[in-house]
């Protein structure tokens, strides 16, 4: 069966109104898995017959077919092109996902990351052949230390959560060096899920600190939990309610007062970069999501990088390798000996995410320190524009201005029968990726909107107009049923989210596919 006749087999004799013969919608093509497009004997490349060779595999030799689909090259190209067209991205439109900092990735970063001198490097090349790459890592480390006011940085963590792990492992090593075993890590209720997960996977007991009525850490509750058994506080600043922790100096003093370390989740650094130096706030360790603050939106398994800046008390425990200046140029400290004897080990086989390092440094150098300061100012301005203009139709969770993201709760939907989920699904039909929903957990039915600094006023105004129109529609009182059915215009309608979570189908299996076709 060729590609066309396979498609024909799915034809509907009499499509209903709004449906099509082919199942395609306009130029949105219904795409089948590559395995479903398989045709025996079809191949995308002409391979020469292998030369005769002596078979040394014995009983290990594969007996059956390898099970790869037979496909022609144009089919494969179309398949991946069509899939890419189904993907919503920051390059397609505003991406208001709060806590994620989805900002435009300047194409200059991409151009530089693709230079063969960076793109074709191998991590095991002799250091004499990679002096430029080491200098880039060293220069980026210098920028990160300068922007945060910290004396040291571990470059290898591969993402924010990996950075958290690095920070807590350095803290544990420092405590062990003091001859102390402390069991508890305090984490505010509003924290990103990775914070308690990291602390627990590091072997600590996690204790939650409640938020006060202003959406900040309840200082009195924190002080009540502090004691000689506390290893660290993990605090996000600005926090996930989009608010600056205004009592952060008092928090740092209280934490240090019991001999604990102050870990900051720096995922929201975009809001304060160039304006506040975390070291001046009393922070001992903080990861920086290069893939947020310094561009390259993440998601879909995309590359991340989470270097961790460290105060002097934690610097000796930083993971290997480090770049150092020597008489013969730059080299790497690879072993826990000499000055590096206290390093807690390695987090990654090699140096970290080189491609991300290149992009981040290109971003920093093209913006300059004044440009980075402007980034933070514009990100906060855009979020406050959203908060002020949508604040009349939606319900802001906390009074006063916000930092980089605007948090609303679902009180504006009270008695309408419409939920936060319905609202977000309706937004998809309007061509927008939904905002973050139901996070942070400290407010009911949360809608967290982070526009970032790269959205223009026109773009924000269009988004605001759509959200306002949907809010007004929800409040008419008879729109609940319509909202429950949204989205109406997507290739797939609303899915059974419980089944997807409880019985996920993550792998194509030939027998399952045959069973489904028969049903
Ligand atoms: C506040 C916060 N902390 C930590 C993380 C984890 O970062 P990553 O996804 O790079 O592991 C995120 C990610 O979105 C975050 O928003």
Describe this structure in words.
The protein is an alpha/beta fold. It is 35% helix and 10% strand. The chain is built from 16 helices and 13 strands. A 7-stranded mixed β-sheet has the order 1-7-6-5-4-2-3, sandwiched between helices. Strands 10-11-13-12 form a 4-stranded antiparallel β-sheet. Strand 4, helix 9 (248-257) and strand 5 form a beta-alpha-beta unit. Helix 5 (131-148) packs parallel to helix 11 and helix 6 (160-177) crosses helix 7. The longest helix has 37 residues, at 354-390. It is globular. The model is unreliable at 1-8 (pLDDT under 50). The chain binds pyridoxal-5'-phosphate. The site of pyridoxal-5'-phosphate (PLP) has 14 residues, from helix 6.
Summarize, please.
This protein is α/β, with parallel strands linked by helices and 519 residues long. It is 35% helix and 10% strand. It is globular, with a radius of gyration of 26 Å.
Overall shape: globular
Query: What integer value in Å does the Rg equal?
Result: 26 Å
By DSSP, the count of extended strands is 13
Question: Low-confidence spans: pLDDT under 50, at least 5 residues?
Answer: 1-8
Q: Which key phrases capture this entry?
A:
16 helices, seven-stranded mixed beta sheet, 519 residues, alpha/beta, four-stranded antiparallel beta sheet, disordered N terminus, globular
